[in-house]
Amino acid sequence: MMIETQQSEDEKVKPVSRFAWLSALLFAGAVLRILIWNSTAGMPVQIVDAQDYNRLAVGLVETGKYLTPSGELSSQRPPLYPWLVAQIYRLHGVENFQAVRAWQGLLSLCTVLLVYRLGVLIYSPSVGLWAAAFATFYPSLLGFNCLLLSETLFTFLLTAGTCLILEAKYRNRLWLLALAGVVMGLAALTRSVQLMTLPFLGVYLGFVWNGKLGRKLIAACLPILFFGLTIAPWSYRNTQVQEVFTLIDVMGGRNAMMGNYEHTPLDRSWATISDVTGDKAWHVVLQEKNPEVQGMTQGQLDKAAMKYGIEFVLKHPVLSAQRTIVRFFNFWQLERTLVAGTQKGLWGELTKLQLLIMAAVIMGAYATVMYAAFLGMWLSPPEQKSDLILLGISILVPCLIHSAIFAHSRYHLPLMPLMYLFAAAAVTHLRVIYRQLGTMRFWLAISCCLILTLGWLREIVFVDLAQTQLLIN
Description:
Elements: H1 2-9, H2 15-39, H3 48-63, H4 80-92, H5 97-122, H6 125-137, H7 139-144, H8 151-171, H9 174-188, H10 198-208, H11 213-242, H12 252-258, H13 272-275, H14 282-289, H15 298-315, H16 317-331, H17 337-343, H18 352-379, H19 385-405, H20 416-428, H21 430-435, H22 440-472
């Protein structure tokens, strides 16, 4: 009944009007990105991860190889983003950061189109336009377009993979599933967390695909097959270099240990690598407990670190559960990366008022989207429950993996385009939501908003203020 009402109240957007609104969004988005791009001229690469991506890209241009700073073959980071940066350097000049920012701005506009298409497939053209508007003007992703980080690329690939699966399902086209497998493989070569989503997507397709059992099995296996073919050359190269089976990179095990060993801090575990040093550093502890790690390749060391982290979790389930809950809220924490970077001079000199306005816009936009998304999830869900399940898999699996291992608020950014869909549904179906005030679903949505807000407040009061007090003392 709710869905029928929702459909009847959804405004009808004519194709010509739809095209005009989408074109206007893209034009406004392009102008805004150009203005932001122009303001970053001369901005240096300051973030450590960005510096490492730049080093890898320069090495690719100069030697054609992924190398460590000491000149050895590297498997430390997924290869696709530094490879893409290297191609831009070949076209526009080595360390032409403005060229990278320009291409990332263009790629983010392509993400806007994908978000629109997802909204149309799952809900309606009006929801698609609202979701596209969120994707066009969302402050954090606009800022990350200008950083030499993999967020922009991974956001595009994650959104594209989800869109292709839905297109394949609605059109009943197996070749689209093969293409989705390739795109998800590229996403894994950008961020290895995508590996963990694949088995769930295979099971999902096996259940929802139309046809007999044989066709369902083909649908479940096809994206997995093409995913494997996409990452196979890199995995073979890694395995040869590391002398142990290595799919994407050699960071998963050490991240798992840094997030799950005796010296992992309860709060800000993502800063373990920089804050926990000396005798308490993860590699020192691992070497003390396992002297045989000396002389291991980075891949073998990563496997040993993974084993150590898993064993620690099994021996300390209560502490590990507590850390996982804290990291879950770290993952969905207020978006303060750009604000913190500005305080360190990332965007040049800003007055306190300008910094305050920037913080209010970025964090206010995030809070607004999340609150609206919870209302949309509970009170205006997709008509097809299978679509809701797909979005749930795409959002929850990366979230839970990061919560169990290594969580930072920056890692939720690629998932935000999927959250825009729910937020857009809430905006479009306000009357449907209004009719449900006071219902169980309404209070569940409000409870989610309240729990998330309490998580934000805990971080500010008990972590940020405590650290500020320590610095003062």
